[in-house]
Amino acid sequence: MLLAAVLKGSSKEALNPHLLQLGQMLTQPDVCHDTEQTVYLEQLVECVAVLLSVCEDDCSIISLQMLKVLVTVQSLTTEQELCNRVEECVRCMCEVLGFSSVCDLYRLHMADLLQWLSDSQRCWTAHSVHSNLLDIIALQSGPVLGEFLPQFLTLLRSCLEPSRDAELRLHVFTVLSKLLLNSRNTLNSQGCFGGVCSGVPAGIIDAEPGVACGPTAAAVRTSALSCLLALLQGGAISKEQVGSVEAKLSVDLISALEEDSQLARLLACRLIHTLLTLTAHCLGSDTLNRIYPELLKRVDDSSDEVRAEALKALSVWFSSLGKCYDTETQRPHLQFLYQQLLLYLDDPDHRIQLIVLDVLKVGSVVDSVLLQQEVEARQAAALTSRTRTYEVKSVITRL
Fold it and tell me: What are phi and psi of 385, to 5 degrees?
């Protein structure tokens, strides 16, 4: 309070010779990171606001220091009113310094901000001020982030190393997911993400080994799957890049289908659905034949939502079969898959029955003769055992 009052009562001429010293002082850890008390943080913001008001464009020599103070306050507070005040102060700084937008301010200082984060990242935990700063800077810089991809991705890779704090990795995966969901306006704003992210899809899951135990490790793996889904669906990487890592990726995703977490299994099903869509007609028979039995297991999942997602993925599996998938040589696989799907027409859940019917419609295109034979065999078995099953004849009619 005292410093803000002194600055407010000083003239531009009196403050200008001391601007560098003031900027350095305000960014000292024992000043800037010392407390989360709202009253104290408000005064830090007030000091910046007063400097801008009194010294105006002369503050350009300490604009980096002022921006560091403001983003640090945002990372420390949960008070929306104070966050709004910080955003107002950032806009004021842009006006005073002649920038047309906040992005211009970040563009000027992004390299220094990333270096600032990198210098301390080895000491980060999930509760460190700087881990929250990563979130603030990455999201607020918007399209500017895409201009500094190599530095940013180097920082992320270091934070996601398996040896790092599990909760920190969880936090970083969450930040990365947010960025990937809006990649065109963040990581891929320059259209360069695909060129610098070689191996990123497989590397995301590798960042959290499946052997790690405990709820935090499981949460990290789930977050990694969510992040990977955002990457594959966000359009930031090409189909060719996905294809180059599909062998490793498919193995990891099949393993993820066995996760204890329902959400993780659900995400794994959606990821396989997306992988099959992106690599349509390109996957080899061996890969395809490894995938469908694991999806069938999930049709028996304890979660109806996972069951439905697994069936949708099987529908895409049928659609993704290319010329390399010889229906004659692969007939035993198709026969087994048809047989198993027909069993689910008797499922107690009517919604599942309808989804299975839709899957069979798609699958009928692959080998309609074989499916016809299996439907008739199923119908005969149902009549012999006098079991009240779903009308199999209607399947033949509607296919």
Answer: -90, 0
320 vs 383: CA distance, rounded Å:
34
Alpha-carbon distances, residue 296 vs 44, 70, 252, 271 (angstroms): 58, 52, 17, 15
Reply yes or no on whether the pLDDT at 388 is more than 50: no
d(CA 326, CA 163): 45
CB 152 within 8 A of CB 141: no
- Per-residue confidence (pLDDT) for residue 241, from 0 to 100: 82
Q: To 5 degrees, how large is the angle CA 53–CA 56–CA 61?
A: 125
Average pLDDT over residues 286-296: 95
Report whether 267 contacts 312 (CB < 8 A): no
- Placement of tokens 């000083």 in the chain: 10
Q: Considering only CA atoms, which of 366, 302, 297 is closest in space to residue 335? A: 366
Q: Which two tokens stand for residue 289?
A: 């034949």
When the pLDDT of each residue in the chain is averaged and rounded to a whole number, the result is: 87
Going 230 to 237 to 274 to 398, the CA torsion angle's sign is: positive
Structure tokens at 141: 């810089």
Distances (CA, A) of 153 to 64, 150, 384: 22, 5, 63
pLDDT for 111: 97
Q: Give Cα separations from 305 to 139, 243, 271, 284, 293 (angstroms).
A: 32, 28, 14, 29, 18
Tokens 């069979």 belong to residue: 360
Radius of gyration of the chain, Cα coordinates, nearest whole angstrom: 28
pTM for the structure as a whole: 0.83
Q: Looking at residue 75, what is its pLDDT?
A: 92
CA 81 → CA 41, 51, 77, 88, distances in Å?
Answer: 12, 21, 10, 11
Mean pLDDT of 119-145: 90
In a 10 Å sphere around its CB, with 0-12 CB exposed, 13-18 middle and 19+ buried, how is residue 43 labelled?
middle
Q: Is the pLDDT of residue 308 over 70?
A: yes
Tokens found for residue 368: 């309609």
